[in-house]
Design a protein that fits this description.
A hairpin with a 5-residue loop joins strand 14 and strand 15. The protein has 13 helices and 17 strands. It has 2 domains: about 350 residues, Alkaline Phosphatase, subunit A; about 80 residues, Arylsulfatase, C-terminal domain, CATH 3.30.1120.10. The C terminus is likely disordered. With about 475 residues, it is an alpha/beta fold.
């Protein structure tokens, strides 16, 4: 009890009844662990995010909720991992009505926060259902609801709350309204409307650097100097557009996000909201092989194996930077293993709210503040209901990965020691069969059968 009281004192910075913090959570789409210069990117610079890390804390072992967007964002909002969440793959799936899938936005709205989601919707799958955003806790919404609309940098329309707004001149592949700029502008407008009288929660959801690869010339110009052996891309059929400079375009998209973060932080300072606003930055999964780009081109996932749709580290380990001048000591790095489903209990703790029961998340507020004892997970679990069925379990430092769960027999589990082998090159399953058995047994305790995705490879396959 004493530790919890000390932590609350530290987080409030003055006393237990200080104003709860504002929260801005920035989530990008398919940005890899190695795509920021503060995480080792050598081909281009991200100075604003580097400065944000220097003024806050950088996590080195943070994990997305899944290896593709819909289930990953579901875990973020609900505090449920993919062994328990209702969405475990991409598709025509929205969060279930309350009280089945209570979101952090609903909890914060009930606690008196102004809530907003700007950009790519995190709750509606590939449906045109803007009304869902209000039903799931967001007072204000501006963006797209069908995740496929986020594949194009110049959307023909967006929604503002439940009203469709046509973007004149936008043709998906070109136009006057670039999506990153649209969403940054609306985020700044939202912050401008806020005051110290009432806290706010903003989920700023950028649909880049997911393909289509496309960025205005001013961002391209910033990165060309670090790009060698450039390549082009010509799709066989229309979906993603042709790209003349694949590497520079991908890098330019990341840099444009970095510039956006700089503008957002500057707005917070001008409004006098900077000190008591927790700003967090991450990605929904690892970098991709799409639209002409391969994550190896710019070492987007660093030394990590695999990428998007993998459950190796490159598919699920992502950057996490947190900055909150009032409560987070500057210049720190943390190896604390955490995941998207930890966001809900973390925000609840710093806002003085009880989190829902039955979630898998554990608050990392003690790690943010540097005060108090940090509880750690016994294990972190992922399952993916695509690609013939995949699952993984982390019991640090041991990581078990199993693919082809639909095959007969199912694929054999692989075992890695992340402390000695972060690139997951050496499968140790044959050397440590007892650890494999232990972790396979743990998996059965880490999940419930999916109601939304009946899947024999995950729900009835016997471990082997």
């Amino acid at each position: 009890m004493l530790c919890k009281t000390l932590l609350l004192l530290a987080l409030s910075a003055i006393h237990l009844h200080a104003a709860p913090p504002n929260v801005i959570f920035v989530i990008t789409d398919d940005l890899g662990y190695g795509d920021l210069s503060c995480y080792g990117q050598k081909h281009f610079k991200t100075p604003n995010l580097d400065r944000m890390a220097a003024e806050g804390i950088r996590f080195t072992q943070h994990y997305s909720g899944a290896t593709v967007c819909a289930p990953s964002r579901c875990t973020l909002l609900t505090g449920q991992d993919t062994g328990h969440a209702s969405i475990r793959g991409n598709g025509p799936f929205a969060l279930r009505p309350d009280p089945q899938d209570i979101t952090i936005a609903t909890i914060l709205r009930q606690a008196g926060y102004n809530t907003a989601l700007i950009g790519k919707s995190c709750v509606t799958g590939n449906t045109q259902t803007p009304e869902t955003l209000s039903q799931k806790g967001f007072d204000y919404f501006y963006g797209t609801t069908d995740h496929k609309d986020g594949h194009f940098r110049y959307p023909k329309f967006v929604y503002e709350n439940d009203q469709r707004i046509d973007l004149d001149g936008n043709t998906l592949g070109d136009g006057p309204s670039y999506d990153v700029d649209l969403y940054t502008g609306k985020a700044i407008e939202f912050v401008e409307r806020q005051s110290t009288a009432k806290p706010f929660f903003l989920l700023l959801s950028y649909p880049v650097p997911h393909a289509t690869l496309d960025v205005p010339e001013d961002s391209l110009a910033k990165v060309r100097g670090g790009i060698t052996e450039e390549t082009s891309y010509q799709p066989e059929k229309f979906h993603y557009k042709p790209v003349k400079e694949v590497k520079a375009t991908y890098a330019g998209m990341v840099v444009r996000i970095d510039d956006a973060i700089g503008s957002l932080l500057e707005k917070l300072k001008k409004k006098g909201l900077d000190e008591n606003t927790l700003v967090m930055f991450t990605s929904d999964n690892g970098s991709h092989v799409e639209g002409g780009y391969h994550f190896q081109m710019l070492e987007s996932n660093g030394i990590l194996r695999g990428g998007k749709r993998d459950l190796y580290e490159g598919g699920i380990r992502v950057p996490l930077i947190a900055r909150w001048p009032k409560a987070i000591p500057a210049g720190r790095t943390s190896p604390h293993p955490s995941a998207f489903w930890d966001f809900m209990p973390t925000v609840c703790e710093i806002a003085g709210i009880e989190p829902p029961s039955g979630i898998q998340g554990i608050s990392y507020a003690p790690t943010l503040s540097g005060i108090g004892s940090q509880t750690t997970h016994k294990s972190l679990y992922w399952e993916f209901h695509e690609m013939n069925g995949r699952r993984a379990l982390l019991m640090h430092p041991w990581k078990l990965v199993q693919y082809d769960l639909n095959a007969k027999p199912a694929g054999k589990p692989e075992l890695f020691n992340l402390d000695s082998d972060p690139s997951e090159k050496s499968d140790l399953a044959a050397k440590h069969p007892e650890k494999v058995i232990e972790m396979m047994q743990r998996i059965e305790k880490s999940r419930i059968p999916s109601e939304r995705f009946p899947h024999p490879g995950l729900d009835s396959a016997s471990p082997n």
